[in-house]
Every structure is written in C-alpha cells, then in structure tokens.
Amino acid sequence: MLCLLCRVACHDSTTDTLPDGKNTEGTYGFDVARTDSGPNSCRECPDDAPFSPAGSSTYACEMTCGKGQTLSTTSCPSPSGGSCCINCEAGKFKASNGPMACEACPANTSSYSAAVACQCKAGFTGLDGGPCTECVAGKYKSSTGSGSCTPCSIGTYSAKIQATAVTTCSACPRSAISPEASATRSDCSCATGHTGPTILNCTECQAAKYKPTTG
User: Fold this and answer.
1) Dihedral of CA 162/166/170/171: which sign?
2) pLDDT confidence band for 74 (50 / 70 / 90)
C-alpha cells in the first residue's frame, strides 16, 4: 500500500506568534510525506500571485494587486515577466491588497491615479475617505484634502457656499467692518470712531466726540 500525502500545518518560524495551521497573508501551508509540522513550513506565494488569506493551509494564492491598483480587464504581459496590475484611475481608489476592483470615490471627494483613499474636494472639508461637508457661507477652502475651511477675514464677507478661493470674500464698504467669517454684507457695520445711517454712509466722529463700538 502506498504512503499517503500528509497535510502539514503552516508554522510561522519568524515570530512564532501564529499557532499551527495558520499563516500570514501572502503565504500558505503545503503537503509533504511526513506527519510533523515545524519551522519554515510556510511558503511564499509566487510573484505573479502574491495574495493568500491569513490562515491558508493549502495553496490558495490568487492573482492580485496592491493598494491603489487593480487587475487589468483587457490584457496582461507575457508569463515571462511584467505585471497584470494597473493603477486605479483618477476618481477611484483601492485601500487594501487583493484582487478587488477599484471603487468610485464617495460624493464630494476626488483622487489622483493609484489612490489608496479619496480626499475632500476644494470647497469641502472632512477626513480623507469622507464624508465631506461643504464650506459654509463666510468660509472657503482652496485645496483638496482634510484641511479645514478658512474663514473670511475681519472686514470681509461671502455669501457663497462651497467657496474655493479667498477672492469670494468681499470687502465691507469704506469705514465699515464685519466679524471674521461673515456671510452677508448686512454683517458689516460702521467701525469704531465712525457713525452713519447706513454702512454706505459711515463718517468719522466729529471733534470732541468718540464712539468705542461698531454699529
């Protein structure tokens, strides 16, 4: 009677932190004609199929791509070399290794080629990957990413939401002022030392008079 092939548990000989029968991602257990398991019984997946789920005790390597890349759906290089992986196109991302397709960026986000995460568009703020919320009136954001919306400076205002440039902040009329992040011209008022019936008619206080507040 012939000897049967015994299944050998995979053993991590580097860190010795995984129990027999387990393995790290990208390696697999194998069959040999013996009954014991020991160090170096994990085998790495080949270069053109480097992914296997952690815990694989049999050859389970898959053709895969790294973060920011996906498998080509049209053609692959010859078996003699090269890769079947292509970069995720702009507007898409892939956050983990594996054979998965690139995903479309969430609303109000964008990405460059080969992205592992999408970023908030200009005019929107939030963590990379979303969700992203619009900059409110009185604020703007000129770049992509997780940065905060910048308030219009004192003496300026902006009614525009999702503003992307400081030029959307308009100056109050002469001798009038507004708080930081003002959203409308009605937020402007005559500056200290000035008075008038409207913000369009602010004049200096007369001699021997003063005004310590705005309005």
Assistant:
1) positive
2) low
